[in-house]
Specification:
Elements lengths: L8 E5 L4 H16 L3 E4 L3 H10 L10 H25 L8 E5 L4 H8 L4 E5 L3 H8 L1 H6 L48 H11 L6 E4 L7 H10 L3 E3 L3 H8 L19 H7 L6 E5 L8 H14 L2 E5 L14 H6 L4 E4 L4 H6 L3 E6 L3 H10 L3 E3 L6 H11 L3 E3 L6 H13 L1 H21 L4 H14 L7
Parallel strand pairs: 1-2, 1-3, 3-4, 4-5, 5-6, 7-8, 7-10, 8-9, 10-11, 11-12
Length: about 475
């Protein structure tokens, strides 16, 4: 133990979206439990949402492109000033390191101004990172931008990649790369933002990834060939469970921007083991009213119980209202909620399959719980995660982008009770065991965490 003013001080800077805030908060809690003083940086907008989510529900939408443009163009001077003010604040130890989301690369420059190392936290998959690194290839080869929007629907995106991309699956099709590359506009904000951030990650002192070695070894090898030290510390939820005790002060902090419905777990308690399909499309995914209806009637006719997270802003430009006939047809068999404690739900024995958008937090939580996935990716590297889940790891099946109720129902039945579903469950159990082993005493992710702290985040010649 050291005096408060001698503690190492980590400033944690997440990208201001729920899917990035959640893993950064887990990492912040882990560092705090390892003896760090932690400053967790939030935007004023998200701070107000956090305050409201502890009371009345706060469900304001987020626009990814606007967030990316804003952080890239406006945040550097403000964050630099914050670090300088923290260094002058009475009673606080000086800032000794910055841990920033890899989408907030300006933090490397800000940390340099105060002489502190900056580690970037890539909160997505390693295969997703390599997918973004191939954007330059598609541009150089003239495959992107698209000649016209017809290429999105005429079969062009189903083209298999001629030779395996570096560090990636041999089963990749064009559609399996992060979605921002398939645009008709070379000036597309998200395309240029992601290229800018991934190609400058080598300026950081280290890159942290929420994955484990066995799951993504080829992609991690490719990352290590082009980046500084890469530390895998996943699954981060399992790692935090090992390190952050229930009585730790930080354990009660919850980063959800939505108010969670705790009735979900009580409802699951009354269901048979592996009898429920859990449906959650994450915090940003939106869909048309027609697709919402197709998913609904697919669930209605599949024959299984379901827990469906339906955010009020799930339908683009409209409120997410389900048909009265659907509610009547599924009465007593399904539960609708606006948000939930997803990790706890996935770990519940009643859950047999997970219909998901394939965000990386959801994918890692599903792997950690040993739950097979029904994959309906929305955007970004979710397409890559889906392909790996289905073609590489054997734990997923594609729902299909067109979304037809008959196909949804048939896919659920196969995953829950068919031969393919049995094989998916077997593979999911194997990956669950490997993921758990990585965060136990002596596991590689736990060892990597200690190496990250000792080699990058601690001031030289100082022990916690």
């Amino acid at each position: 133990m050291v005096a408060a003013d001698e503690k190492p001080h980590a400033v944690c800077l997440p990208f201001p979206a729920q899917g990035h805030i959640t893993p950064m908060m887990k990492l912040a809690k882990v560092l705090h439990s390892r003896g760090f003083h932690v400053t967790f940086v939030s935007t004023e907008y998200n701070h107000r949402r956090l305050v409201r989510s502890r009371g009345a529900a706060a469900l304001a939408g987020q626009d990814p492109a606007s967030l990316c443009y804003s952080t890239m163009t406006t945040c550097l001077p403000h964050f630099t000033r914050l670090l300088e003010e923290l260094n002058r604040a009475p009673g606080l130890p000086p800032v000794t390191c910055v841990v920033a989301d890899a989408a907030m690369g300006f933090a490397v420059d800000a940390a340099k101004e105060i002489g502190a190392p900056c580690a970037l936290f890539w909160t997505a998959s390693a295969c997703g990172y390599m997918g973004y690194r191939h954007f330059r290839f598609f541009l150089d080869e003239g495959l992107s931008p698209l000649k016209d929007e017809e290429q999105l629907t005429n079969g062009f995106l189903d083209t298999p990649v001629a030779r395996p991309p570096r560090g990636m699956s041999k089963h990749m099709r064009f559609r399996d790369f992060p979605s921002f590359i398939w645009t008709t506009d070379r000036g597309e904000i998200l395309l240029n933002f992601l290229m800018h951030e991934v190609e400058r990650a080598d300026r950081a002192a280290a890159v942290i990834v929420n994955t484990f070695e066995e799951l993504e070894q080829p992609a991690l090898d490719a990352m290590r060939a082009i980046l500084p030290a890469v530390y895998t510390i996943g699954p981060l939820g399992s790692l935090a469970d090992q390190i952050v005790t229930d009585d730790a002060p930080a354990s009660a902090i919850r980063p959800s921007l939505w108010r969670e419905d705790h009735a979900c777990l009580a409802w699951l308690d009354g269901r048979e083991p592996h009898s429920v399909v859990f449906v959650n499309y994450g915090s940003i995914t939106t869909m048309s009213r027609d697709k919402l209806a197709e998913f609904a009637w697919g669930l209605a006719s599949c024959g299984y119980g379901f827990l469906w997270i339906v955010r009020p802003d799930l339908v683009r430009g409209d409120s997410a209202v389900l048909p009265r006939e659907f509610l009547e047809a599924t009465e007593g068999r399904g539960l609708l909620a606006s948000w939930c404690e997803q990790e706890a739900v996935l770990r519940h024995q009643a859950v047999g399959a997970f219909l998901t958008h394939c965000g990386w937090n959801s994918t890692m939580e599903s792997i950690s719980a040993g739950v097979p996935m029904l994959c309906w990716p929305f955007f970004a590297e979710q397409q890559t995660n889906s392909r790996y889940s289905c073609a590489e790891w054997g734990i997923g099946v594609e729902v299909g982008g067109s979304v037809r109720r008959e196909a949804v129902a048939a896919t659920i039945r196969e995953a829950m009770g068919g031969e393919q579903g049995k094989e998916m469950k077997r593979r999911a159990a194997e990956w669950m065991e490997l993921s758990a082993r990585s965060t136990r005493r002596g596991g590689r992710s736990l060892v990597n965490l200690d190496k990250l702290i000792a080699e990058v985040l601690l001031p030289s010649k100082k022990q916690v």
